Amino acid sequence: MDGTKALILGAAQDAGVPQMGCHCGHCEQARRDPAALQYAAALGLQAADGRCFLLDATPDIRAQAGMLPRLDGILLTHGHIGHYTGLMHLGREAMGACGVPVWGTPQMLEFLRTQAPWEQLVRLGNIELVEARPGASIRLADGLTVEPFSVTHRAEYTDTVGYLIRGSAASVLYVPDVDSWDFDLRQMVSAVDVALLDGTFSATDDLPPEIMHVVGHPPMTETLATLAAGGLSGRLRFTHINHSSPAWNPASAIRGRIAEAGAAIARQGDVIPL
Fold it and tell me: Could you give the domains of the chain?
């Protein structure tokens, strides 16, 4: 497909499917059948001039970068393992990259600049750190801009942003990780053509309460209820789905509810023209 586009390169939570040490039905199926394997959530952006960018550097970056014709830069959302640790493959033990631009918030960049082993990537010139300040638009190419915006999420090491992606024909909202919808989600979703939103858990009982309390993430049921009130669910695709989520099963109750609302699960390999 010619022209500017976004490519869904993965839709699973940080560790993908199968997750090491897990023997749930989804993980066991993915071990038996490579077609059931799910990469960690990431988005590719390809400009009309051929330049390509990754939103997040996941542990699956080798396969995901291979789904793009080239790599001209990486935009990070935050400092949890599923979103930046793929940067290691740019280092001298692997790709030995030269000056790959890596955008992040000032806090994210300070983390990379000062913490081993990431500081080595900066010191050796494998990556070039570029500020992505919330609220400031970044022009990646003609007809392709992104704008980071702050979201609330566990900030053990860095803050977190989502991205508003604009092409000349369409726009995408990308928020793979959030603790709660403490902003006007309906308004933001109504302003874009596609919203790729945090779908880590399907409901509040996906995991024991003590774990759910610590890791956060609004369940899909809550997000659907929030958006249904504004009739906006048709724009919605869930991403960053936990390996054990019933949402991977097309016959599950949550998948029925998602379909009823006119929403969907983000599918690895899908293309969104921009």
Answer: 5-273 (3.60.15.10)
